[in-house]
Amino acid sequence: MRLPLLLPLRQSQLLPGLCRCCLAALSSNGSAASSRRYLSTDPGPAPQPVIGQDSVEVSGQSHPRDDFTNVTPKILAKVGRNLHNQPHHPLWLIKERIKAHFYSSYIGRWGNPLFSVHDNLSPVVTVEQNFDSLLIPPSHPSRKRGDNYYLNRKMMLRAHTSAHQRELVKSGLDAFLLAGDVYRRDEIDVSHYPVFHQMEGVRLFSNHELFSKVQNGEELSLLERGSRRTPQKQETHTLEAVKLVEFDLKQTLTRLVTHLFGEDVDIRWVDCYFPFTHPSFEMEVRFQGDWLEVLGCGVMEQELLNSAGAGNKLGWAFGLGLERLAMVLYGIQDIRLFWSQDERFLKQFRVQDVQQHVCFQPLSKYPPLHNDISFWLPDSRESEAGRESFTDNDFYDLVRSIGGDLVERVSLVDQFTHTQSGRRSQCYRIIYRHMERTLTQQEVRLVHEQIERAAETELGAQGRY
Prior knowledge:
By secondary structure, the chain is an alpha+beta fold. 24% of the residues lie in helices and 23% in strands.
């Protein structure tokens, strides 16, 4: 079971052929305003991460290793790449379009943009930031070592940008956008990658701000005592306040998605559950005949605001995945392409205006090669250290560590349990495909043999090949 994060766009497969080109051209509203704030401040190349025998060094900081350390060199090599801050990268284009929309549509009392933007926060966070600050209980399955990249028991690579919500609210911000790279151990296919990018927004309201335009608004209040939690509201919120916050949230996001997809887009709201918002919703848009989830959102849990020193305010939050939007809007079929240095890919996104329509022209598809690997699983009993036993993500992560982006997909094709010994066996099919050239079976076999050996030495599996 995986935590249904406020930023949920990794969890469902992309529909085939999702090219925005077949719809009306993207809206260009606000293009003049958007061109004023293109570039994010980039701190420059980060120090190269190092995994030593006793410590992990990343972003210039050294962290002691322990029994929870599971981050790999290939994953750490992605830290500091900041694709969302590389001008004219497709993820940068999506981020800038969202920024431009908020800059031009929401202006503060002094004529400045209402929302501040934060897109250079370090992905190295504490476990407390990533989970506890968001009210995710210690027993929640989303904390599992098998689903996250831990530096040690106290530090990790963030699994969502929401890890920074409390600190930004605590600093006094009432309206902000946050973008960054996030890290999760996950399956391997054309729409999943262990590093991806999220963007979220938060807005808080004081009593005066929320009710200033309501008749007799001075008589209304954000909070109340002695109430109870219902599907419509939290126990400390008044129903009037929640309905106004919910209306503002849905209106804001409808405007954003209309800006991205065009005026004729069909939208629907689906009730859902997140640990740090209530009530919570997912937005879906009708795209090529199907309903496609594009973001999650909700009214922020008051306990979270109380812990950040903003207990006298109510707020909403939303989150979306930049890869998901880019794959849909630009028709990019393989998530590995976002990490490509192939000029044929990159040059297609060098546009003069972020609002300019881009229809990605697919690169030549080189033939795939597939190899199977079968092995007996290690003893399923949990270790004395309290770590979970073998998971599919352990194998996926091992394959990525060795095969890297040569691997297009890994799928479980067979499994069985021996009737007498009770031992379990699994067979995985690994599909290799280079993004820029044709692979030979000889070079693939060398990689595959490394994976076979590593499955035995690192995972404790017993090969059946």
